Amino acid sequence: MRRRELCRWLGVGGVASATGCLGTRGRRTADATGSTDGTGSGATAADWPTFGFDGRHSGVNDAGDGPRTDAVAWRGIGYAPTVLCAPTVRDGTVYVGSAANAVHAFDATTGEERWSSPTTSYVETAPTVVDGTVYTADADGVVFALGTDGERRWTFETNTNLHSSAVAVHEGTLFVGTAGTMPAVASGDTDGSKAGTALALDTATGARQWTYTGPTDWFTGPAVGGGRVYFGNHDGSVVALDPATGAELWTWDGGGEHAGVLAPPAYADGTVYVGVHVDGRLVALDAASGTLRWETDLRASNVKSSPAVDDDRVYVAATGSEATDYDAPGESTPTPTPRETSDDGAAGMPTVDVSGSVFALSRNGGDIEWRYETDHDFRSSPAVVDDRVYIGGGDRFLALSRADGAEQWHVSVDDFVESSPAVAGGRAYIGSADGHLYCIGE
């Protein structure tokens, strides 16, 4: 097991129904020129070509179709130690990386593996498929451009670790967030060798266009929108850069040791939405200036989820390790009471059960409109398609009502789900730590 994979396993932990209609929904899909998906990819309603559906990481495709059943149509891979990577779908092919040190391509309908391309380390960065090229990266910091036949077109070695769940492509440029050069550890120590970089590479050749170096810590995957590219950082900040030059346009500081941005931001209509880890907040920032528009305390100790954003709401998942007390209207489940249990390893010290929640908040002000709660954590980001919210949590893949958060069905798997789903063509695709890629749908 490589050092990054070992540290990943050591450090993964962390400890009502709305009335009325959903409102008018925008058509979150691309036209023939690809002008609305943020990637210039020309993606259709039957595709999910990048993490969060588009370069903005909106996580929403209202023109698409999701599964209406909990049936497992097929399973792929099966021999990998884990599949943390979010899959993507383009032109009838599913692309995903795994801890088998490879990128895989499957027939979206039959599950037949079309090819597997080796990498230098495990892959948790979701492939982005644009104009016949598959872009991804592995944990050892190598960026790959592959043809849709699996043949390598170019590689770029960042000479850093790479721990982000997404890359983004915009107007011939590939944006990548990296970690530092020192091995990952489960402590809070930071120094210059742990400082990450934000990179811009030419999509045709892999040539570096610019580099932005962070002060102390790791960068998330980027989101693109409003003429800027946005990166979160594990130090709790968000930075907006000029996509052409890498010049810093603004930085927002989330609050030091009790903050941390672990998942890619999402951009929508002049606002950047960010989940803040550790102190459990969702924040909305003005995309032009970085000023705080609103923030909502989710009363959770762990936010590893990227928000999904439609015309009316923001959807995000969080995990808490203590009792919550929400004043949200129409909660879909009652607020739990923490249960104290004997912990033999801590001389009888009480422990509190971990619970996870999926939230729907209003875009205008961040009010909690509904909450789905369960007894496991969430490390996945939601995909919103038609009238459902799809997400992985604990050892399950869930379909929730978009209107009120009520569970429609779930599929149980053999280990935890950290992968975020891709939803396209009436099916959902998601990876699991049991080493499989799952296809859900008839």
Q: What are the key terms here?
A:
single chain; 442 residues; mainly beta; Methanol Dehydrogenase, Chain A; 5-stranded mixed sheet; 1 helix; 2% helix; 38% strand; globular; disordered N terminus
Number of domains: 1
- The total of beta strands comes to 33
Q: So what's the overall shape?
A: globular
Q: pLDDT under 50 segments (min length 5)?
A: 1-40, 184-192, 322-352
Task: Estimate percent helicity.
Answer: under 10%
The CATH topology annotation reads as Methanol Dehydrogenase, Chain A
Number of H- or I-type helical stretches = 1
- Average pLDDT: 83
Strand content: 35-45%
Main sheet characteristics: 5 strands, mixed
- Secondary-structure-based class equals mainly beta
Q: What value does the Rg take, in angstroms?
A: 20 Å
What distance separates the N and C termini?
36 Å
Question: CATH homologous superfamily?
Answer: Quinoprotein alcohol dehydrogenase-like superfamily
CATH class annotation: Mainly Beta
Query: Any guess at the CATH architecture?
Result: 8 Propeller
Q: Strands of the biggest beta sheet: in what spatial order? A: 1-27-28-29-30
